[in-house]
Write a structure and sequence with these properties.
alpha/beta; 2 domains; Quinone Oxidoreductase, Chain A, domain 1; seven-stranded mixed sheet; six-stranded parallel sheet; 18 strands; Rossmann fold
Amino acid sequence: MATMKAIVKAKAEPGGLAFRDLPIPEPGEGEVLLKNLAVAICGTDLHIYNWDAWSRKRVRIPTVIGHEFAATVAKTGPGVTRAKVGDYVSGEGHLFCGLCDNCRTGNAHVCYSWKGIGYDVDGVFREYFTLPERNLWRNDPATPPAYAAIQDPLGNAVHTVFKTDCVAKRVAVFGDGPVGLLAVATLRAIGAAEIFVFGRGNHYRLDIARKLGADHVIDTLETDPVAYIKQHTGGSGVDVSLEIVGAAASVNAALKSVKLGGHVVMIGIPTAEVPLDLANDIVFNAVTLHGVTGRKVWDSWFVMRGLFRSGRLDVAPIITHQFPFDEYEKGFALMQTTNCGKVVLTF
């Protein structure tokens, strides 16, 4: 039986990864077999690596991790109608049923029975893997594999930015992690009028925000974000706040930074209860809250394609490191330091 290399969460402990030989799978009904070109390490993979409380509840041992990829179609299974051997693809990292009312009304990102690739089911950190044809996205041949491999987090950023109107608006981005930086790149590409970026003590990532064209790049350990925004908007606040951290201080700063009638888009995931001044920060200020999860299938993907084709979306500064697939431990060690943007593993 032919085998392949795979990165497996093999032990229920911090670290706990193994580089194993596994059988190359056969595609089932409606599935394709994919041969990887590049994968990217996500914050979710780091949570699993660190074996935090969420991972301990969610991930079975052993599991092949990972969900961000660029690949080619190596083989098609029975019932596949459109994918062809050799197609250059990425794919939606959430498995969805396609049949529930949410899936049938353009909201497959909140399918009632969705499963996450790389934690609920085996993931893509292997040389070959299978995926339902309906999860495939055909990439433009001009898109480099490293760029194509980060469309999962880029799609999160695009979904966040496009949840409300950010064109020609003043927008604050709370969070300088990869999704926050990808949101900055997206905002610059679509013509946001003024971009404020707030991070906490990580000058490596704040420097990336500057390279991406953010107008204001602020370390919240040194400067109060709400006071800074009020000072630079004539006291009114920004039109839109994008909250991409989930920490209580960040959530409340995002709410207090928008103008009357402004919008706050939230994709950050809190790890504890977040106290809010509901009356003064939301109700009396007529602030609209938008919750975002994942990518809007397939709207976010079409937007990403258009942004890449426009030539205005610059993600190069965000892909800071690339390693061969078998040097994955270097990638995870770097992710632990947070002195990086996106880390890509190549085949």
